Amino acid sequence: MPRKGYRKPDAESRRDVLRVYLTPAERAHIEACVERLEGTTLADYARRRILSYPVPKPQSADHAALIRALQKLGTNLNQLARSVNSGHTIEPTGFQATIDTLHALLKKATIGR
């Protein structure tokens, strides 16, 4: 993450705007392509296509489900840690169950490559 007050040099900052007119079908097609690419914005996708930069490949449904499961698990683990740091006591089984699930998901993620 850039330090506070950091600005990109003028040569790297995106200030110029390109307006493109599309038919509703063209817009729907582009939005469908972007939707399959999690974490990609419409502008980023269009920029990559126009400038012939590589576009990330769509993730499989299994991969996307695995990512969501890991995110939920991370949230759960964070809540447990926050609770402990606030002085609450938690049964070790709560942590262990979360950690065991995390190990299983990570194993699935690395084997599935």
Automatic annotation (TrEMBL):
Domain of life from the UniProt record: Bacteria
Pfam families: NikA-like (PF21983)
Classification via InterPro entries: NikA-like
Name used for this protein in its record: Plasmid mobilization relaxosome protein MobC
